[in-house]
Design brief:
The structure is a homodimer.
Chain A: H1 8-26, H2 40-50, H3 57-68, H4 73-94, E1 104-105, E2 108-109, H5 111-114, H6 117-136, H7 144-158, H8 163-175, H9 180-205, H10 210-237, H11 240-243, H12 249-252, H13 258-262, H14 264-282, H15 290-301
Antiparallel strand pairs in A: 1-2
Helix pairs in contact in A: 1-3, 1-4, 2-6, 3-4, 3-9, 4-6, 4-9, 7-9, 8-9, 9-10, 10-14, 10-15, 14-15
Family (chains A, B): Belongs to the FPP/GGPP synthase family.
Organism (chains A, B): Sinorhizobium alkalisoli
GO cellular component, one term (chains A, B): cytoplasm
């Protein structure tokens, strides 16, 4: 590209590097104020669970929704890193033998394989805890009101009324197939809640109006649904190599998905509809929202 | 007792009932704002892990250190409930087969026995997350500055530089016996950090001076050490029935304790010394500090 504006992919990659670099610093060996010590093995396990070259899609959404509303980029980066800690903790625990029992993630051994189960449990616990530390720490350039708002929104998105609750529903779904409404709730909690938080966080960081915040939440809802549909399509079609993890597991376990219920071409049309609705929500922001709109399309079309 | 002042035990019991009652409300089935749904089984598991008639010593320390410095009792109750969620999450995860593998806690089946392992992992995760929700929620009558301070202090006390880090050191101690300094660090992290937070929280809730906050932290450190010494003595001497859980396990696993290192009578003298130092730290507060001083003595002398 000779154009001065970097491509969407270039911007995503560049932001991911900034998040990766901040996470590496945050997970350094030196104890912070009021910490007693940082046990090396636990820290290694946390780093293994986090510093894995992920796409950092959630931090990207925080950064871009913050930029849309003229918020502070440094604050967005720290909140994005905190959110990524929550996302990665959920993967570490989800991979455990008692949960999904996965040995591979992004082509690497999962934390309980590379270390052991107990260390993986504690590494997940520590990453979750650290997310709230990162937001509340003096280094995050936000007001206490904004920090409190972010802590509350993140806790709601990731707790028993959000992501963790969604994982509990997912476990139950292996025994009792949920109906369509049940699948929608499960997915809105398990994957939707954190994506919605990522978008809403931008509005909090930018101290935006109630209207903007509501709009960003709605945008997050649409792309959260799109994310899950795309995931279900991938699980059906992609091979394990492209995903860097086991695939086809949902079908093998008889887990209901909307794709299984309505078919692939319905899902593709639904994805188009969700992206169009997401784009519609961004209309008031005009050209400034190009990147977020591209993100919606990227989420719907991703092949890994 | 016909005296108008309730005894220490009566006060401890009364406060525990208030915490139990608040926790039962907080763990009710109705989703809060921005929560999507509360899956019943997960909520049951959380309640099983929390509503177990514990002594609620940590919330009591929050309440009494807050009262000492004339802080808001309602705020202290909510922060105490949040802290109890963190304490109980750590027990739920600590009891897991991959960790201490305990089937009994307070005479009841542990969460992974009453439910299953996956649900116990998620219940622990959800309790930890909910602690930060409870502090940050609008219902907690504190300023955003106080809430941010509490979130940060609690995250530091419970994360990889605090309690979770202490548990990682504890796992390692089963393979490589730590020296005395190692044991002290392990215990300061595993049990000391949350007790210190409980006392410091009172200073934050009461918006106390830096001096008061430092003094309460130091008091928390002393009684945290006393708590662990008393625990080690109990593990050596009590029978399983009095504790409501398996005992003598530390010795069986070859885990080093200061009691094992220096003997029982040294430990009893050391406990006396710690209580005296804790009381000394309360001297500037005069008669107002009677209850906290009694708490220190209770912790040192407890037999269950």
């Amino acid at each position: 590209m000779t154009d001065e504006t970097p491509s969407f992919e270039a911007r995503l990659k560049c932001d991911a590097q900034a998040v990766e670099s901040l996470l590496a610093t945050l997970l350094g060996p030196v104890p912070l104020e009021n910490e007693i010590a940082r046990p090396a093995v636990l820290l290694d396990a946390m780093r293994h669970g986090v510093l894995n070259g992920g796409k950092r899609l959630r931090p990207f959404l925080v950064a871009e929704s913050t930029a849309l509303l003229h918020g502070d980029a440094g604050a967005a980066l720290r909140v994005g890193a905190a959110l990524e800690c929550v996302h990665c903790y959920s993967l570490v625990h989800d991979d455990l033998p008692a949960m999904d029992d996965d040995e591979l993630r992004r082509g690497q051994p999962t934390v309980h394989i590379a270390f052991d189960e107990a260390t993986a449990i504690l590494a997940g616990d520590s990453l979750l805890t650290y997310a709230f530390d990162i937001i509340a720490a003096p280094e995050t350039p936000l007001s206490d009101r904004q920090k409190t708002g972010l802590v509350l929104a993140l806790a709601r998105a990731s707790g028993h009324g959000g992501m963790a609750g969604g994982q509990a529903l997912d476990l139950a779904a292996e025994r009792t197939a949920p109906d369509e409404a049940g699948i929608v709730t499960l997915q809105a909690m398990k994957t939707g809640a954190l994506i919605r938080f990522a978008c809403e966080a931008g509005a909090i960081i930018a101290d935006a109006s109630v209207d903007d915040r509501r709009r960003l939440r709605a945008f997050g809802d649409k792309i959260g649904l799109a994310f899950q549909l795309a995931d279900d399509l991938l699980d059906l079609t992609a091979d394990a190599k492209a995903m860097g993890k086991a695939t086809g597991k949902d079908a093998a376990r008889g887990k209901g998905t909307l794709v299984a219920l309505h078919g692939q071409s319905w899902a593709e049309r639904e994805l188009e509809r969700l992206v169009a609705e997401a784009e519609g929500l961004l209309a008031p922001y005009g050209a400034r929202s190009t990147i977020l709109a591209e993100t919606a399309r990227f989420i719907a079309n991703r092949r890994s």
